[in-house]
Description:
There is one protein chain. By secondary structure, the chain is mostly helical. It has five helices and no strands. The chain has helices at residues 2-5, 16-35, 39-48, 50-63, 79-89. The longest helix is centred in the first third of the chain and has 20 residues, at 16-35.
Amino acid sequence: IKCLKQYADFRGRARRKEYWMFTLINGIIGFVMGLLGLTILSWIYSIAVFIPSLAVCVRRIHDIGKSAWWILLFLIPVIGWIWLIILFVQDSQPGENQWGENPKGEYM
């Protein structure tokens, strides 16, 4: 829900939990719509959550201390996707970085 509240907020940082819960819930919703044969509704839902998905990806990349340009790795088939997954599972950069304070509130 936090991702939908920050619909088009590309600033700041997003914890791993925020990113992966949003991805999991969207995956489950898409899977259920596919099982029920709700193709049109599934497309409408996908379009509706595209911007929040992109925004949470950018904030997640910011959280590990990288520029949002790293998101473009998805354009490289397989290798780029694997590298993005590796980036998305990394722990938050401790302390504050150029995109804001650590969302965990921890300082090391």
